[in-house]
Amino acid sequence: YSASVSADGKTLVFTSRRIDSEGGEVDEMSDQLYFEDIYISIWNDTNEEWSDSKPVEGNVNTETHDAVLSISPDGRQLFVFKNQNAGDIFISKTRMNKRASEAIADGSPDAARLMSLNRWSKAYALSGGVNSGYWDSNASVSSDGRQIYFASERTKGKGNGDIWVANKTATNKYESAVNLKEINTIEDEKGVFVAADRKTIFFSSKGHRNMGGYDIFKSVRQEDGSWSAPENLGYPINTPGDEVDFTLTADGKTAYYST
Question: What is the pTM assigned to this prediction?
């Protein structure tokens, strides 16, 4: 679950609870399932299929829960959720080796092997106005890296989880977050994703005109800075069940989501 795709549509990361998780232990204090880890898969243009998924290399996965929120459009940053301080947003980075970048761009069958050589740093908490001491999660960064959209249960929202946005001021530091009041409700909003145009967002909500459970909605920032009325994406995307974690390639042609 919680899949996220890079802007070029060729790198997919997601969260899973599998026997090959870091440490291979189960959460004995909760549900007796394996701890969450972050997995990665690379698209192969030649075979037109995804490579076998595997845990991301490096230090981002630990022996406790590590859940990916999104991958940055350039594929070099992972935003990660950790259950600390009621839930905080962390970041992990990789230095993409040139051969891997070229292989992905060319659709080479060797891309998955070269990507596996990239190691991800230990995740560290974002500073500034993002993490609050309340539950903060579901982060998505704009294509220019200057804004981060996320869900939070902090005070001064409209109710339960709300969508917020914060502007970046320095490396991994952000200004105070602003509540997107036009799209939030007294019910739950989460799973936000900002498209490549930096003005269209997709998010999941229980508080608008829903088909049932969480539905995926779209809103567009207007020239005056306000947000358009949320539009339900409708069937077959939405169903009477829950639809969350929508992510879209930069060309707008392929979306991934959990249902």
Answer: 0.91
